[in-house]
Amino acid sequence: MRGSRIEEVHTAACAAVGTTTRTSLGEVHPRELGRYSVAVTGSLPGHAGDLAEPLFLSSVLAWGDGPEEQDLLPDGNAADPFAGFDVAGLRLMGGGQRLTFHRDLVPGKPITVDVTLASVDLKEVASGKLLVLVVERCYTDADGLLLECSETFLGREALV
Amino acid sequence: MTAVTVGTALPPLEVRPTSISLMRFSAVTWNPHRIHYDESYAATEGYPGVLVHGHLHGAWLLACVRSWASGLGRVEEFSWQNRHYAVPGDLLTITGEVVDVDDDLVVVDLAETNAEGRLCAPGRAVVRLNFPQEGA
């Protein structure tokens, strides 16, 4: 018997656990950090500046151009956000991050990220099945490690 | 020199999310998720408005601790969890309290709550002080 979509994604994700993908992100322009800071402090009356700048790298969802619009899922997300398996049919939300800031980001230096799917779990919760993915990322530049990030993503069956 | 001890409270940070902030955050992080800018889509998932990004909750928690730590030290570790949604217009309050001091390392517990007192995002940060604490 064919399983539910969330079970299919769970199976595909399990096969990808432990796989590391290295991607060159290029250089971060000071303008990107400036815009990030403005977006963060726009809702903080009386505050300005780079209060949350260390979170910039791990907040960016995509570094390339991204998929064409017609290729995005109905909720707007990319179908393959983790470069390895398709999450179409699920609603994916961020659950939070755990970070270690080794050094401050210096604009203008090329950055590389290693992305590893660390773990996958399919849980039964009150609202139904819940897929829990933990993705680890290590960001480096020519001088070494900048940032380590472990992020949790929560997936539920799409409503439509 | 400022003394940092267990129980030290951080100055609270009040956040009033705006739809412009959310749009700008989606743009600068290249986040196409409709739940952050398309009210009709957000309604299909049962939400009363577009949702504040999980990363933006994290950014505000980090802003609170970095604002306090400015001149004292550097945030070396930080974590947070997204527990409850927020929408533009909500009044969110971020509080923090020092829960451990060990020489030059300070652990701060953080919380972002909405006007109803609901916890939207708990967090924790480790700050390395520029100077060790006497008697810590």
Biggest interface between chains = A-B, 41 and 44 residues
CATH class of chain A: Alpha Beta
Q: State the end-to-end CA separation of chain B.
A: 15 Å
Give the proportion of residues in helices of chain B.
Answer: 10-25%
Q: What composes the largest sheet of chain A?
A: 5 strands, antiparallel
CATH topology of chain A: Thiol Ester Dehydrase, Chain A
Uncertain residue segments of chain B: none
Class derived from helix and strand content of chain B: alpha+beta
Helix content of chain A: 10-25%
Taking all Cα atoms into account, the compactness measure Rg of chain B is 17 Å
| N/C terminus separation of chain A | 21 Å
Form type of chain B = elongated
How many separate domains make up the residues of chain A? Answer: 1
Biggest sheet: strand arrangement of chain A = 1-3-4-5-2
Report on the structure:
- The complex is a heterodimer of chains A (160) and B (136).
- Chain A is an alpha+beta fold and 160 residues long.
- Chain A has one domain (5-157): Hotdog Thioesterase (Thiol Ester Dehydrase, Chain A), CATH 3.10.129.10.
- Chain A has three helices and five strands.
- Chain A has helices at 5-16, 30-41, 56-59, and strands at 20-27, 90-101, 110-125, 128-141, 144-157.
- Chain A has a five-stranded antiparallel sheet.
- In chain A, a hairpin with a 2-residue loop joins β3 (110-125) and β4.
- The longest helix of chain A is centred in the first third of the chain and has 12 residues, at 5-16.
- Chain A is globular.
- Chain B has a domain at 13-17 and 54-129: Hotdog Thioesterase (Thiol Ester Dehydrase, Chain A, Roll), CATH 3.10.129.
- Chain B has helices at 19-28, 39-44, 54-69, and strands at 13-15, 73-81, 92-102, 105-113, 119-129.
- Chain B has three helices and five strands.
- Chain B has a five-stranded antiparallel sheet with strand order 1-3-4-5-2, covered by helices on one side.
- The mean pLDDT of chain B is 95.
- Chain B is of the alpha+beta class.
